[in-house]
Amino acid sequence: MAWWGQSLLFVAFALVLFTPGTVVLRLLGARGMLALGAAPALSCAFYAVLAPVLAAAGIAWGPATVGAAVLALALVVLGCRRLVRSTRHAGSDAVGPPPWLGTGAVDALLAHRTGVVVALVVGSLVAVVPMAIGMGSPGAPLQQWDAVFHLNGVAFIRETGDASSVDGLYGAGRSVYYPTVWHSMVALVPGDLVAAPADAITSVANASTLVMGSVAWLAGLGAFGAACFPRRPAITVLVVAVGGAFSMFPTVLLSTLAQWPNGLSVMLVPGAAALWVVLLRSAPGQRVVLFVASFAALVGVGSAHGSGVVGLAVIVGPLALAVAGRSVRHAWTTGRRRAVSIVGAAVLVVGGVATLLVLRSSVLQVLFNFERLPQRGYGPSVGRTLLDMVLSPWPGNVVVSLAVVVGAVVLLRTRDQRWLLVSAAAVIVLVALAAGPSTPLRALTGIWYTQAARIEALYPVVAAVLAAVGLAHLGGALSDAAARRSPARLGQLSAQRCAAALVVLALVASLGFQAPGRADRFAQAYDPAQIRWGTMLSTEELALVRDLRSLVPQGALVLGDPHNGAAFAFAMGGRHVVLPQLGTSAMDESQAYLRAHFRDIASDPEVCRHVEELGVTHFYEDRAGASDGAKVDPESPGLRDVDTSEGFTVVARAGTATLWTIEAC
Fold first, then answer.
1. CA distance 251 to 258
2. Are strands 618-622 and 657-662 parallel, antiparallel or unpaired?
3. Predicted local distance difference test score (pLDDT) of residue 108
4. At what angle do helices 459-485 and 419-435 cross, to 10 degrees?
5. Which of 11, 529, 562, 583 could form a disulfide with 567 if both were Cys (CB 3.0 to 4.6 A apart)?
């Protein structure tokens, strides 16, 4: 498929991601960047609630059914809005849609609409181009551990029409819960309309990466900037302009880590945070609608991936605590001490119960007890984050990093939005704890599997706003300096133009916001010749997997080591596989036995019993080893060194891989 086809899938996934949330927020009265940036979080909440409802009703998940549900949602919200308006006109105290950012702030932001649009378009192109170069082709599969699970999860939803998170992917009984929002959205886009059947799922998955890492991410950051500084629209423009400068997101999460659901939750955080900032600063009479929207955004973030809720709390928590502290102090000083005591006691009780539930949760215990070797000391971790040294051993973007520091100093001196500094510091501390030595405090990062890269992805949410403040301040200083030195010729240089020039300088000085490093990191996840941590499918083997629909009859079941690429037969080849993921936690008895003993097929009757019970018809074998750059699973001895001289017939060969029919049983 050519890249023009991928651009159509880009637009299609963007519509899936933005449409439900935008419709709801617009009907509730939100406008501009806030309505756009916060929309994906509400969309994800909608899909998370809708999927189990459709599954319980026996209605297949698909574009038609979901589209009808979106229309129904719009009619319900519109009806509620008219009911509220009619009640208000009848003399009730009911309050209509809130002013959100405030009428004056929205008007000021709309006046800067051109700047926002330009920043959004340019920033998206700067983000998309290196990602696309690294991918190589629109339908190239992401060959990393998590990607195998997620691509096959999309294939499962498309086949069964069940996108519910309740029973987990791959059917009931495999898990109690698994976040399937990303998978459900990818499954809605009919990639086979513009791509070959073998590339339909991978092409849409890659399109989702491009959307989440560009326009959706930048719009969310812009919404957060607008919520933090509603009276300074230039800050919003600058936030969008520099939002893509940080390498922590989307590059790492959506390339070599292959964490699409987790990446989706991180992408949703700034837009959802914007709604919570507006809510925390709203007047009492405006909070009902704002709370509904903010809570829906929270549900959307958590539905995408549970760690996103904690990330959202890290970002907005300092502001919430500051607002709560002021409210408590005001109530105490005005004589409402009994009410404060009762509320405080209730909070302590609820907090204590919640803590006990968390400590007793088997899932969370696994997370908090997850062992990961330390990566670096605290000092190097802090420097690595502040200087953006994720993609290279030297500072990746000096201009923007300097602007972040300047912005922090400005907020500290002006005593304006200082909670942002606490949020940034909290992210940096958590990153250092996750990467640093094993201590009891390191358990605080367990929700992120004690992986620094997952937490680092949150840093740009706050850092982009700090950088925008710093650039605005530096732009004003340059403008004043120019006016003093040459009032006649340079006096007309506005602070905004100077700030824009600094953004251009940052873009050029960092080689397009580290575009070569981004392209290289994506190539390490997509290009068989450059993949790190073991290649699953070579170029020749990719062709073989893509041809499975013509090589293997429908209804066949393929056995093979998922580490060597056999698992891609489901998502790309359209044929079921015995082992659809690299992990072993959900394997049943037959899967575990064949993984350990299949090579004994000629001497062990139990092997044939499991083969016949499952209905296995084909065996995918790859004789490449670690020395050849292949990904090898040492815990799957039964799927390597199989004697295929008897009882097997060659179907096709490609590279070091061979597809056999099984006749030994």
1. 10
2. antiparallel
3. 67
4. 130
5. 562
Q: Which residues contact 12 (CB under 8 A, 6 or more apart)?
A: 189, 190, 204, 207
Using alpha carbons, list the distances in angstroms from residue 135 to 204, 254, 650: 13, 11, 32
List Cβ neighbours of 178 (8 Å cut-off, separation of 6 or more): 165, 168, 169
Helix (H, G, I), strand (E, B) or coil at 657: strand
The secondary element (H helix, E strand) that includes residue 146 is: helix 145-160
Give the tokens for residue 614: 């499952």
Instruction: In whole angstroms, give the CA distance from residue 222 to residue 119.
Output: 10
Q: Evaluate whether 272 touches 243 at the Cβ level (below 8 Å).
A: no
Pairwise CA distance, residues 397 & 512, whole Å? 10
The pLDDT of residue 174 is 52
CA distance 307 to 450: 12
Give the H/E segment covering residue 299.
helix 287-304
CATH number for the segment(s) 539-662: 3.40.50
Structure-token match 């790492």, residue found: 252
| Biggest CA pair distance of the chain | 94
Whether pLDDT at 171 is above 60: no
Distance CA(85)–CA(276), nearest Å, equals 24
118 burial type by CB count under 10 A (0-12 exposed, 13-18 middle, 19+ buried): middle
Burial of 632: CB neighbours in 10 Å, binned 0-12, 13-18, 19+: middle
DSSP 537-550: --HHHHHHHHTHHH
**What's residue 94's pLDDT?**
46
Question: Quick one: DSSP state of residue 630?
Answer: B
Per cent of the chain over pLDDT 70 is: 92
- Pair 519, 256: CB distance under 8 Å: no
pLDDT in tens, 233-260: 999 999 999 999 999 999 999 999 999 9
Report d(CA 235, CA 654) in Å as an integer: 55
Residue with tokens 């056995």: 559
Place of tokens 């509320």: 343
Are 446 and 369 in contact by the 8 Å Cβ rule? The answer is: yes
Write the DSSP symbol of residue 182.
Answer: H
Rounded-to-integer distance, Cα 494 and Cα 169, Å: 55
434 in Cβ contact with 368 (< 8 Å):
no
The alpha carbon dihedral of 245, 305, 41, 299 has a sign of: negative
Mean pLDDT along residues 503-521: 96
CA distance 118 to 240: 9
Determine contact, residues 568/609, Cβ cutoff 8 Å.
Answer: no
Neighbours of 480 (CB within 10 A): 13
CB 297 within 8 A of CB 38: yes
Contact (CB, 8 A) for 45 and 296: yes
In the numeric block, the tokens 């290649």 are attached to 535
Q: Is 550 exposed, middle or buried (0-12, 13-18, 19+ CB in 10 A)?
A: exposed
CA atoms 203, 206, 210, 216: torsion sign: positive
Sheet holding 648-654, edge to edge: 576-577, 557-560, 618-622, 657-662, 648-654
Count of H-run helices and E-run strands, the chain: 28, 5
- Residue span(s) of the chain under CATH 3.40.50 come to 539-662
Residue owning tokens 């215990």: 365
Of the candidates 358, 262, 270, 261, the residue with the CA atom closest to the CA atom of residue 312: 270
Cβ-contact 618, 660 below 8 angstroms: yes
Residue 378 near residue 240, CB atoms below 8 Å: no
